[in-house]
Design brief:
With 314 residues, the protein is α/β, with parallel strands linked by helices. It contains 16 helices and seven strands. It has a five-stranded parallel beta sheet, with helices on both faces. β3, α5 (85-96) and β4 form a beta-alpha-beta unit. The chain is globular.
């Protein structure tokens, strides 16, 4: 974000590609670009396309129309899940000679516009490291006249799985819960903030690796009715297995497994709790449970208990 702020002090680029997994950073970057463009007539000079109304022709046609309220027109392409080869070709051809008064901002959560990385200004919106995210949150609490303890800050980020988007949304609730108390404590965070499902699966995996049966059952009983929990656990252990046998770096593994680098880095810390042989046995167990569910031999809830208890004693 600091790099983007400095770049925007100079000449505006004709295309900004935003990629990553934290929507707070997407919104922050977009606000900075919009401010630099000085858009005054949004009805005319701010045009948005998403999966429902996207066509590359419409986007490029929009770019050819001169702005009405100022020097720039801002064209937003947001989270397109499908892109044809002809779309890619058309965009590349346009960027060879772009309209100087038109600025594209591409929210590329699905990484469909990777081919543009060397053709436009790239803005990295992946989750901040813990130190940087902590600084942002401390500042947000300070704006509301509050302080947050180190323990509470770490707990908040863990519960939100490192996403500033979620953590920022919790700031008001934590700040204004008790107007007479200047400090946000770990206890308050634990009482007021719901844990992200991915973090719960991370906690569960830690407990399984440490053979802490009481904690495993407590987490499982609390989460048993959550939709998609079995899929999250299955994907988590499959990734652990592939990470354990791979020599690839985090970025390459993330691309291969279809996840973000943050998830790979976080899961690598859990491999120490399992041997490669254990993970191989768990991987075979996942395949068996998946088959039993699909064949009707097991109900999903029963399969979840069977899977977790089998991993506990593998």
């Amino acid at each position: 974000m600091k790099t983007l702020k400095n770049r925007l002090k100079g000449n505006l680029e004709n295309c900004y590609l935003l990629e990553g997994d934290d929507y707070y950073l997407y919104d922050k970057a977009f606000s900075m670009i919009k401010k630099a463009c000085n858009i005054t007539l949004e009805d005319f000079d701010l045009i948005k396309y998403d999966d429902e109304n996207f066509s590359m022709k419409a986007c490029l046609d929009s770019a050819e129309v001169m702005p009405m309220g100022g020097e720039y027109k801002l064209i937003v392409i947001k989270n397109i899940s499908k892109l044809s080869e002809s779309d890619k070709k058309a965009m590349l051809e346009y960027l060879e000679s772009p309209v100087k008064s038109s600025v594209f901002v591409i929210f590329d959560y699905f990484n469909k516009f990777d081919f543009l990385k060397n053709k436009c200004a790239f803005v990295d919106c992946k989750r901040f490291d813990k130190n940087t995210a902590s600084i942002v949150l401390v500042n947000e609490f300070a704006k509301r006249g509050k302080q947050i303890s180190g323990e509470a800050l770490n707990t908040l980020l863990d519960f939100c799985n490192g996403y500033l988007t979620r953590a920022i949304n919790e700031v008001d609730k934590l700040s204004y819960y008790d107007l007479n108390e200047p400090l946000v404590t770990k206890k308050l965070v634990e009482e007021m903030v719901s844990k992200d499902n991915e973090y719960v699966v991370f906690e569960l995996t830690e407990a399984l690796g440490q053979k802490n049966g009481d904690k495993v059952l407590r987490i499982l009983n609390d989460m048993i009715k959550e939709q998609g929990l079995l899929g999250l656990i299955t994907n988590h252990f499959r990734r652990l297995f592939f990470i354990s046998i791979s020599a690839l770096d985090d970025k390459s593994l993330a691309g291969l497994l279809g996840v973000k680098e943050y998830a790979i880095a976080k899961q690598k810390s859990q491999i120490r709790n399992f041997s490669k042989m254990q993970l191989k046995k768990i991987y075979a167990l996942l395949e068996q449970v998946d088959y039993n569910i699909k064949s009707g031999a097991m109900l999903q809830e029963n399969a979840l208990y069977y899977l977790i208890l089998s991993i506990l004693y593998v």
